Amino acid sequence: MGRRQDDENFSFVSPCIKYLLFFFNFIFWVISMVLMSVGVYARIEKHAEAALAYLSLDPAILLLVVGVLMFFLTFCGCVGSLRENICLLQTFCISLIVVFLLQLATGVLGFIFSNKARAKVTGMVNDAIVHYRDDLDLQNLIDFGQKEFSCCGAISHKDWTQNIYFNCSTLNPSQERCSVPYSCCLVSKNELVGMLLSQTLINQIKDQIELQENHSRHQ
Question: Which of 58, 73, 116, 152 could serve as a FRET partner for 207 with CA atoms 20 to 30 Å apart?
Answer without folding.
Answer: 152
